């Protein structure tokens, strides 16, 4: 069965930003 | 360029594709922020905090060009146009209504692309300060950007003293949009 990760827009935005800065460290 | 639903797809699939749209859009805001003169002189912590609290608002400004307030339609970069009614199925009706109102007000100011970009920089550094450590540095950057925006706008429209204040009045609108809607849910399929 397909599972889903549900998150708020704000959390999704925070997640991407944290990832970006972690990658560029 | 968001491939939102051809009629044949379930609203869940629509929701997933709509959610996917945000990832590249957020990354573009991060790159935009790094290009703002002075932004990268802030501490990394403060850069991250400003982006976390301001990105949704910058996106709202960026998405304005997709909204046609008269026709009540949204046209994605891939050319697909959707009526407000058809997008209501995504459950984002209240956000879409607010977006139409906001894009109507912002659009009526008739900003040039470079003015819009400078306004987005002001939006970002004017975001919520609660997580910021070096508030003084952020306030200084905000002041510089607002001064640059004011001189750009007044140099082009010397006899229009109302446009700049009207533009700054959009900042509280964006704060409200952010407080009311950034908790909207997105859904991502994990196979």
Account of the protein in words:
With 25 residues, chain A is α+β, with helices and mostly antiparallel strands. In chain A, 60% of the residues lie in helices and 24% in strands. Chain A is built from 1 helix and 1 strand. Chain A has one helix at 9-23, and one strand at 3-8. The longest helix of chain A has 15 residues, at 9-23. Chain A starts with a strand and ends with a helix. By secondary structure, chain B is mostly helical. Chain B is built from 8 helices and 4 strands, in the order ααβββααααααβ. Chain B has helices at 11-35, 44-63, 84-88, 93-107, 113-125, 135-156, 163-168, 170-181, and strands at residues 67-68, 73-75, 81-83, 185-190. A 3-stranded antiparallel β-sheet of chain B has the order 1-2-3. In chain B, α1 (11-35) crosses α2 (44-63). The model of chain B has no long low-confidence stretch (mean pLDDT 88). Chain A binds chain B through residues 2-10, 12-14, 16-18, 20-21, and chain B through 19, 22-23, 26-27, 30, 44, 47-48, 51-52, 55-56, 181-191. β1 of chain A pairs antiparallel with β4 (185-190) of chain B.
Q: Portion of residues in helices of chain A?
A: 55-70%
The SSE order of chain B reads HHEEEHHHHHHE
Average pLDDT of chain A: 84
Proportion of residues in β-strands of chain A: 15-25%
Trace the largest sheet of chain B across and list its strands. 1-2-3
The total count of strands of chain A amounts to 1
What is the CA-CA span between the terminal residues of chain B? Answer: 23 Å
